[in-house]
Amino acid sequence: MKINLSLREDFNLIDAFGMLDQAGKGYITPGELHDVLNELELILSVDDCKMLFARYNREMDGALKYSEFTDSFMPMDQHYAR
Q: Is residue 80 part of a domain?
């Protein structure tokens, strides 16, 4: 799903993150991710959202920042090549 989304001509990560971070705090929580994705009819369970956070939330603080969000869209081979 993320590959198809990222290949769309009208897709950019800043706008995508802005849709999730509706309060403009600079981070999102698992609950916010769950709520917004479900509003967009991309049905994920709360556990799925927590699993995404467990993988990409480097500081393990429950707040996924923009830099961590962008990492979730990078292909794994580029992620480790840095």
A: no
**pTM exceeds 0.85 for this model:** no
Q: Is 81 contained in some domain?
A: no
Q: What is the pLDDT of residues 53-78, one digit of tens each?
A: 889 998 899 899 999 988 877 665 54
Rg (CA), the chain: 12
Determine the pLDDT at residue 64. Answer: 92
22 in a domain, yes or no? yes
What's the number of domains the chain is made of?
1
CA distance 21 to 38: 14
**Local confidence band at 42 (pLDDT 50, 70, 90 cut-offs):** confident
- Per-residue buried b or exposed e for 38-57, using 16+ beta carbons within 10 Å of the residue's own CB: eeeeeeeeeeebbebbeebb
